[in-house]
């Protein structure tokens, strides 16, 4: 049992210290052109849909003229276009205007993508990854690409993952020692860290027959786990939409139980707090960890979940009750409940709390300290491009933080980009509230 009053006092203290350590941009945002467009989008659902459709088609557009025609076409479907975008539509009426508009919008989308994507290939990303390490932060590389439709595509993704492990392991070996990022009380933490998606490892994901996708993905994931073990790297299996959850859990549990993988590599899984039945998912994860006794312990990355809109739309289309909470505060409360259970379950699992919400993060740090846990036994994780300011604040407090760094080209990254933009423009997202200037007491209030 913890003294809840004392914990709340700590959360305010920790959250306040982190907020003071945020670079000033987070408190007084200076917005670029594309950020201003997203701000407008967050105020109008129709406009948001139009801009997202535009972002989605951008990589497929063959010329600047084509690009501006698409932009004007999508904006033309919006009933009340705000004045700056009306100017854009007028520009699209002439050839020279379209060239200027096309160039400006291509720049805007590229700028937005580069905020989230660190390089076109793992090699191209090494500068950023090394810079993060020098600045006191670890990283996890995510090779963009998901929802493959052919076996050849899944094979290519597996080869890219294997190459990425080699490139990362080789480059990381030359990095200077950083004890705070390389050990916790359970032992060493690999420097090279790769996050992979099951939907990219198999085109056969079938929610009604999880074993089909599991067996097919296992053929590609097993060699990757072996490679990670031999290179001393960590492999993290991301969680995607609900229709792949069962396959993902079964796949990870089965492979990690195999004899040849009993002593490594370090591996991880993701728990999504927006799922109404996430407490039961955690029961399963902990039951597996207890029964397997595998070392190094499984890392559980706790997130709220990135497929909220998808899950709600999908459920409504089928006439089902959504599997996710529908009130944001319920997801926030559940996130805190799961944080506590995970921290209390150590050393059975390693815990990574992934959030840009100052309250959720301060709660994890505060609860850990209140229970007598060491800071080194809690990892905090952020997404490159969304959590950069928070990452900076956390490293300044000597907390262990890891940035999730997508790598790849814009075509492969579109689904990822759209998820980030959806999150960023959602009115009740923490980052939107913070950018609107909500005061600290409100931001740190218990959900
Ligand atoms: C390092 C890292 C790795 C990640 N990996 C994954 C992953 O593998 N799989 C995955 O799904 N996500 C992943 N995410 C994304 C994560 O799930 C969240 O989408 C994102 O971090 C936003 O949550 P927040 O706590 O930062 O922000 P907050 O603004 O506090 O929370 C936003 C979240 O609340 C939830 N939400 C929004 N509206 C509602 C509503 N009306 N009712 C109920 N809940 C609502 C949604 O989950 C939304 O993303 C990752 C995030 C990070 C930082």
Characterization of this structure:
The protein is α/β, with parallel strands linked by helices and 447 residues long. It has two domains: 70 residues, no CATH class; 326 residues, TIM Barrel (Alpha-Beta Barrel). The protein is 58% helix and 11% strand. The protein is built from 21 helices and ten strands. The strands form two sheets. The chain has an eight-stranded parallel barrel with strand order 1-4-5-6-7-8-9-10, surrounded by seven helices. A two-stranded antiparallel ribbon has the order 2-3. β5, α13 and β6 form a beta-alpha-beta unit. The longest helix is centred in the N-terminal third of the chain and has 22 residues. The two termini are 19 Å apart. The model has no long low-confidence stretch (mean pLDDT 91). The structure holds flavin-adenine dinucleotide (FAD). Flavin-adenine dinucleotide binds next to β6, α16 and β9.
Describe this structure in a few short sentences.
This protein is α/β, with parallel strands linked by helices and 447 residues long.
Keywords, please?
2 domains; TIM Barrel; 8-stranded parallel beta barrel; binds flavin-adenine dinucleotide; 447 residues; alpha/beta; globular; two-stranded antiparallel ribbon; 10 strands
């Amino acid at each position: 049992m913890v003294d809840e009053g004392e914990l709340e006092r700590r959360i305010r203290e920790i959250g306040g210290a982190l907020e003071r350590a945020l670079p000033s941009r987070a408190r007084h945002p200076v917005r670029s052109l594309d950020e201003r467009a997203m701000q407008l989008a967050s105020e109008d659902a129709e406009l948001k849909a139009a801009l997202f459709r535009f972002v989605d088609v951008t990589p497929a557009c063959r010329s600047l003229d084509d690009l501006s025609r698409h932009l004007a076409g999508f904006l033309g479907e919006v009933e009340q276009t705000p004045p700056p975008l009306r100017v854009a539509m007028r520009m699209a009426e002439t050839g020279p205007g379209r060239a200027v508009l096309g160039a400006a919008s291509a720049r805007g989308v590229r700028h937005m993508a580069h905020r989230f994507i660190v390089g076109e290939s793992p090699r191209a990303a090494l500068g950023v990854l090394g810079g993060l390490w020098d600045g006191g932060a670890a990283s996890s590389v995510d090779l963009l690409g998901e929802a493959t439709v052919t076996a050849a595509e899944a094979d290519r993704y597996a080869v890219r993952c294997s190459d990425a492990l080699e490139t990362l392991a080789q480059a990381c070996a030359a990095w200077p020692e950083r004890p705070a990022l390389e050990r916790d009380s359970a032992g060493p933490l690999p420097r090279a860290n790769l996050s992979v998606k099951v939907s990219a490892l198999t085109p056969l994901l079938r929610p009604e027959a999880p074993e089909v996708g599991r067996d097919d993905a296992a053929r590609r994931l097993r060699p990757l786990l072996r490679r990670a073990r031999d290179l001393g790297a960590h492999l993290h299996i991301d969680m995607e939409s609900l229709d792949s959850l069962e396959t993902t859990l079964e796949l990870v549990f089965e492979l990690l139980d195999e004899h040849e993988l009993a002593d490594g590599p370090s591996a991880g899984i993701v728990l999504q707090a927006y799922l109404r039945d996430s407490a039961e998912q955690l029961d399963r994860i902990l039951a597996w960890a207890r029964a397997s006794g595998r070392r190094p312990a499984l890392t559980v990355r706790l997130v709220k979940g990135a497929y909220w809109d998808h899950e709600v739309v999908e459920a409504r289309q089928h006439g089902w009750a959504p599997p996710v909470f529908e009130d944001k505060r319920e997801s926030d409360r559940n996130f805190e409940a799961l944080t506590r259970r995970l921290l209390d379950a150590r050393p059975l699992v390693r815990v990574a709390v992934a959030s840009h919400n100052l309250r959720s993060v301060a709660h994890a740090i505060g609860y850990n300290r209140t229970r007598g846990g060491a800071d080194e036994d809690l990892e905090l994780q952020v997404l490159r491009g969304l959590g950069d300011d928070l990452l900076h604040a956390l490293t300044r407090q000597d907390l262990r933080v890891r940035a999730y760094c997508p790598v790849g080209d814009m075509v492969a990254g579109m689904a990822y980009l759209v998820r980030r933009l959806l999150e960023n423009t959602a009115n009740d997202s923490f980052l939107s509230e913070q950018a609107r200037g909500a005061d600290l007491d409100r931001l740190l209030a218990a959900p």
